[in-house]
Amino acid sequence: MFEEEQGENQSFNLNIEDIVTMLNARDLVPKKILELVQKDERIAYINSDAMMEGSNARILSETYPDRVTDVGIAEMNLVGVSAGMALAGKIPFANAFGPFLSLRAVDQIHTDVAYQNLPVRLIATHGGTTSGGGPTHYAIADFAIMNAIPNMTVIAPSDANQSVKVIEASVDYPGPIFMRIARGEEPQVYPDGVEYDFQIGKSIQVREGNDATVIGTGVGVWLGLQASLRLEKEGIRVRVIDMHTIKPLDREAVVAAARETGHIVTVEDHNIQGGLGTLVSAAVAEAGVAAKIHKLGVPDEFAILGYPETIYPEYGYDVEGVTNTVRALVKS
Question: Whole-model pTM?
Answer without folding.
Answer: 0.93
